[in-house]
Structure formats: C-alpha cells, structure tokens
Specification:
2 copies of one chain form a homodimer.
Chain A: H1 15-22, H2 26-32, H3 41-54, H4 60-67, E1 72-77, H5 84-98, E2 102-107, H6 114-123, E3 128-131, H7 138-144, E4 153-156, E5 166-168, H8 172-185, E6 191-195, H9 201-218, E7 223-226, H10 232-243, H11 248-251, E8 254-257, H12 260-273, E9 283-285, E10 302-304, H13 307-319, E11 333-335
Helix pairs in contact in A: 1-2, 1-3, 2-3, 5-13, 6-7, 8-9, 10-12
Chain A binds a DNA duplex (30 and 30 nucleotides) through helix 2 and helix 4.
Chain lengths: ~350, ~350
DNA sequence: CAGTGATTTGCTCGCGCGTGCAAGAGTTTT
DNA sequence: AAAACTCTTGCACGCGCGAGCAAATCACTG
C-alpha cells in the first residue's frame, strides 16, 4: 500500500484540513500531537489516522511563534581546526535532538565579534545560545549580552567569569592536577607547557593550574609558549621555532599541551622535524581524548572529558532542571597511553 | 554612551513599537529593514534611529511564517569520524551565512532512516535540505522524498542517481582518472583500492572509475577492500587484517584510498603495525586534502575538491540561479606530496 | 498651476498554531 | 436518579510579520 492522497502533498496541509477530515476541531488535532495533552484515546486515533492520510505534520515555525519557544539552540563555533569540535558537535546534536531540540550551527570565525551572531540567533528566538568556540573573551561576552531574546547564554567546555552566562565544563583544575601528578610520578622534571590562545579563560585555567601546581611542588615555574589557535599546524611551527638550534631533549623532557589538537602538532614536530622519539626523548600529554589520540601513530596520554554527561547537563539547563553547582565540576578520566 | 531605554529590553519589542516612536506605520518599519524595499531615505533613517533606541530587530520566525521562506537550510550528516566533515561544515556555514542563510545541523547517525530527519527539517520549513553524510542509499533518498515541504533536496559532494535531488560535486571520474594516471606514471603496478561504505554511490563512482581505468590500461582488475564507515580506525584494522600473515610489499605497492580519512588509517597501519615505509615500501593516495593530509607526519598525495566553489554553487542553487549542468562537474586539483 | 507619472505609505487579510477559559460529555457518588 | 465530579472539546484572541493593492505624496512638465 502506498500513501493515499499523494496528489495532495504539494499544498501545505494544515491542522484545519485534518480537523475537517477527522470530524473534530482544529485544536483537537493539535492536541493529538502534544505528548501530555488532555485528549481522549479515541479522538487521538481519529486524528492521527486522518493526519497520516493527508500527510500532516505540525508546523514548528508557527508553533514557535505562537508559543514563544522555538525548541532550537544555537551553537556558536569559531574553532574548526580543532578535531575535538567534530566530536563535540556529534555529541551535542545527538543529545539535543533526542530531547527535542534542533541545532542551529553558526560559524563565528569570520565575525570580529560574536555579538552579531548572537543577535542573529536571537532573531530566530532560539531557546539558548551555546558557545563552544575558543576565542570568546569575557569582554566580548559582555557586549554580546546586549543581544537579548537569547534566553540563555551557555559556555560549553570552558569556564566563564561572566555572571550572566551558564558554564558547563569539567573541573579543569582537578583534571590538570591529575595530569601534573601523573607527569611528576613518571619522573619528568623539565616540562614545557604549550598553550592555546591567551584570550581563552579555559587555557588560563589549565595553564595556571599546571604552573601553580609545579611551583608548589618544585619551587620553580616551568616555561610556557602559546599559539593563536588550537591548530596542530600552528603547534608544529611553534615547537619547531621554540627549539630551533637547541638540543631539545636537554631542555625539555615533557611537553604538556593544553589539548590534543596541540599535542598532535607537537608530536609531529618532535618526531619529523627534530628526529626525536616520543616519549623516550620528549614525552607529550594532551587533553580531550580526540579519536586521533587513540590512533596507532600518536597514542597520546590525555584526559577525557565526560562529554555525554556534559551534554546531558546542557539538556537539563534547557529544561530548567539543572543543578547549577554541578555544572562546572564534571569529572573526567586520565587516559594513559604511550606518549608520556 | 550606553544604549538608551535599556529597561525596555526585557519585553519583546515589535515593529509596532518602533512605528509609534518613529511616527510611521508598522509596514514602513519593516520596509526599512528590507534591502530593496520602496522607502524614502528620510523615513528609513527615522525608523532606524527609533529601532536602535528601542533595540528592535525583525523577528525572523514571524517573517518566515508569513513569507513562507525560512532562510534556513538543513545539513544532514552521519559521518562524524571523517575529519573532512569539519572542513565542509566550516565552509558551508560560512558561505551560507554570508548569503543570508542559517544552518540547521542534524545528526543522522542515530536515525535508521534519514526520512525522519528530513521530516523534522520540513516541519521547520527549511528552504533546502543538504545531505553531506555518506550512508544515504538512493533507496532511502527515495522514501525520504515522501517528506515534502522540503523545497530542495541537495546531495553535496556526492553524485546521486535520484532525479528528484540536486547533486553538487566535483567530477569524480575526472579526478580519479587523474589519480590513476599519476600512479601509473609513477610506476606503481600492484594497487589495492580501499573503499568506504558500499551503500554510497560516491565511492562506487571513485572505485569503479579507478578499476575501470586500470583495466583499460593493463587488462587486469586490481583488488579492492572496503570498510563500513569513513573512519581511520576502521581503515587501520582493515589494512592490518588484509595483509595479516603476508608480505605486504610484495602484494601491493600502492593503496589507493577513497578519501583521506581512510588514507590516514592505512598509513598508520603500514608504518606502525607492519613496520614498512611510505612510500618506499607501499605508497598511499587519498582524496579531499584534509588538513592532516598536509601535516608533517602524513604528507598525503591527494585530490583537493574545490569546496568554496561548490559552496558557492549551493548558494546559487538556493537562489535559483544555478547552472545545473555545471553542478556535478567541479574540477579540483591533484596535490602531490610524499606519500605516493 | 493643473496634469501626468513615479514614488512612497498605509492597510486588509492571512501565515498555522498556542493559551486559557468555558461549555460539553462522561463518570462516580449518595 | 440527581448531584458532584473529572475529563474532553471548542473557541476568541493573539504571536509578528509579508504580499499585494489602494491611497497619498512627490516631482516634474508645459
């Protein structure tokens, strides 16, 4: 059996059409499509039958306009060189969709300011805007908040000092301390910290935590360098230039990277450009546990954020059932591999 | 100076409010925000002034409902293990946004069928749905077309036999022939083709083209193997199992991969698991020119699709100004590196 | 300054559905 | 069997804006 009334599909079929066919009112039709609506089993079946015949589905645009809830969230991202973003996108879209939210993806790498993008999102009445990029300064966040009708501004996988935003992230301090302890336990004593953009407070968190921890333990502050983007290529170049003309393995015995994207570049530089071995000559650690970190070529010792739990946290924030104390204290897991 | 009337921002400000303040009608207000509307310079300035004071921006939701144009396109993706997707997402979102379209990202890796996702997209009245995943069979496309109100169904970076879809892709046949010629010219004579999911007609195109070309030249048909997803890890495992217990370099001198995602895994397998060198023992070619292909560790000889031109083509399709003959014949560029 | 055409402005009606209430139907209690 | 419920259904009104037309205004010309 094929769908009946196939010819009708060109014109938009509204709840009124279904109502006429099912012999009920339009409101009963729309009730039939609401999960917890007050409607009898009998008329729901009548409606659903008619709806299927006509190929009716509720119009979410009209629904959003009328109810002032769009069931869309806007994801702002500016950091497409970092493979971890693909993982985050996969996880977030899946969890959001499973819970009834659609995802609006906005590329903010072009925008000088995120506020334009946020303004645009607000024009669509998104229920929330989620920042998962890296270049958002707290200042730009502040101005961005000028764009209202964005009910919730959420910073994902990063801490934010801005009191008007909700931050969902793992406990970076605990995580970095765990990495530091691991490194110390392994006997490394001449670390180099490779950081990302200095505008990001996340990296401030990780870098500061590591440097502080090290200082507390050995009373010396390790060297650190940074790159402008979380981009393996930039990390590669930076490592090369940092060690140019020096005997790297005598200066440094481990490179602690702010995340795996940087670690990839660092490892490539160590092996290909400098001709050294990881971890024998110089060890490397990362953060995020991206898929490549587990590949045969890299095998990076890293820290896995509990992305699914964090995505679940985001859903709870959207539902308004979140426990705000827990949102910034997700606990991940150190993944020990061969790179350190 | 900070924004005046800050206190007003909590309530939604509509065109009516602006109209009252500017001393014009509501329709004049909305005209002021339309690029090519018939409105005098003077009243536009009046309106814009009032709008800025009140913090007004047009509501795209209401606009979409009234005009039946949402200015949204839906991107369907199921292939998050392929790093190339991140590049595509970056490019597409940027071009779309620059031309006035917002992007709805739908993760279809969970869905048994894409039609559910398409149905959902249609409920949002997207102007077009763009398939950039890999698992869409032409059969599923056919059933997916049952979900109407999706004005345009576009298959991006892949050919499609379905006449109801618009396919935007580079000329795979020309590209693969170029790769084949390159390989032949380099003197390789024992190729192995590593393909992706057999449901994808794109891979059919590339694989078939290569095998046919080879047969035409040497009257022998090379061996080929395949994996279920464009995932480096799967490619790694497949290559390992394929050569298990055999002296690989005697069987094969080049592995032609359907894309870079597979090439990454293949190279890792050759070097790490089999202890061989690329390209001296076994060469490798890819397709897509993902960022990692250019990294010091891989240096993959590959084929770069003209993504920006293709994204521009998508925009033209949306605008209705596309030259349909050209949509499937974008020409890319062979990028010669050290892997073959 | 009336007359003509070009431009600008206002307006009616509708996009498809949600909210909240009141009327109707169905069920239980005494 | 009437009263007292509960559940279900229908409805007026509104969400914010757009298409298309009619009225109003403007810019010239002779």
């Amino acid at each position: 059996m094929r769908e009946p009334d196939v010819d009708k599909r060109d014109e938009t079929v509204t709840a009124d059409d279904v109502a006429k066919r099912a012999g009920v009112s339009r409101w009963t039709v729309n009730r039939a499509f609401k999960k917890d609506a007050s409607i009898s089993q009998k008329s729901r079946e009548k409606v659903m039958g008619a709806a299927k015949q006509l190929g009716y589905v509720p119009d979410l645009l009209a629904s959003s306009l009328a109810s002032d809830r769009s069931n869309m969230v806007c994801l702002l991202i500016d950091d497409f060189a970092n493979p971890h973003k693909l993982v985050m996108l996969e996880r977030l879209t899946r969890f959001l969709r499973k819970n009834g939210w659609d995802t609006l993806l906005v590329n903010t790498s072009d925008e000088e300011d995120t506020s334009a993008a946020l303004l645009n999102a607000s024009q669509r009445r998104v229920d929330a805007a989620v920042l998962i990029g890296s270049q958002f300064t707290d200042r730009s966040l502040a101005t961005a908040l000028g764009a209202r009708r964005v009910r919730k501004l959420i910073v994902f996988a990063r801490t934010s000092e801005n009191p008007n935003t909700i931050s969902i992230c793992c406990d970076d301090r605990a995580a970095m301390n765990e990495i530091a302890n691991y490194i110390i336990g392994k006997g490394y004593r001449r670390p180099l910290f490779l950081a990302g953009p200095q505008t990001s407070s996340a990296h401030l968190g990780r870098k500061e935590t590591f440097l502080t921890k090290w200082h507390d333990t050995f009373s010396t502050t390790p060297e650190f360098i940074s790159v402008a983007r979380y981009d393996p290529q930039l990390a590669y170049d930076r490592i090369v230039s940092h060690f140019a003309g020096r005997t790297a393995q005598e200066i440094t015995d481990v490179i602690v990277c702010e995340n795996d994207a940087l670690a990839l570049g660092a490892m490539d530089a160590i092996r290909t450009e400098m001709g050294l071995r990881v971890p024998q000559d110089i060890a490397v650690t990362g953060f995020d546990d991206i898929p490549q970190a587990d590949s045969a070529n890299y095998r990076i010792t890293t820290y896995r954020q509990p992305l699914s739990a964090m995505a679940e946290g985001l859903v709870q924030v959207l539902k308004g059932t979140a426990d705000s104390d827990q949102l910034c204290h997700f606990i991940g897991k150190l993944v020990e591999r061969e790179s350190a």
